[in-house]
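cron nightly-structures :: item 1 of 1
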Amino acid sequence: MKYKKLLIFITSLIFVTTLVFSSVFFFKIAEIDLTVNSVIGSNENLDGVLSSRLEKYNGKNFLFVSVNDVKKEMENASGYVKVNSVKKVFPNKLAVDVEERVEVFAIKRQNEYYILDENFNTLVKKQENVNNVNGLPNILLDISLSDYDEETLVSSKTLSLYDEKTTDTFNEIKEFLLLRRENIASIKVNVRSDGMLNRYLVFNMTEGMEIQIDRSNVLSKDKLVKMFEYYDSSENKGDTTKRYVTLLETGEIVVV
């Protein structure tokens, strides 16, 4: 009986030793597969920045590398990084897939600009409002900054636009804003309460035309389509007479 217990102990010890030996020598990260989906023409060198950050994991024990730690490392490297996935592929591969956030909006605070993507994630702070892809200005968000402090606008933080409904409105129309942002100089967000909460978006176009979408939270996408139909067909895009996109009781959307 005594020899049997000793045999079990020795066998267990050999098993544990083998397991430890295997984890140390056979589960070291030997390959890091980084995929970066970048914006064409962007001057952000995310490949180089992220590759250098990932070097610290090369040779580390595969079993003890945290996926969440790798994700945070990528996000902390640049405000432009959106992590799609971090995967450990046995026995010794780390696969990281990220994409570059696209500059769309800018907010001016004093003499600096905070650059945001379409989801209002703050990407970077710049001295001038120029897009990192084509050098053109991003859409200036004309909002009151009295409700926002410096900490609200730090890199990778998401800016909240007044309330959930206002954010929903932008989410509904952002595909159009991405397509036509070169035609839009600024967007002013007006939120007022007059028995019910109404939102108005005032678009200042690059040529000078000003168009307001009344009650922007109602059929926002359809109203924006109507706005661009009017804008594209206009022979005088520099006309500073204010136009209004509104919904009639008949359900028709018109520009007046």
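cron nightly-structures :: done
The chain is about 30% helix and 30% strand.
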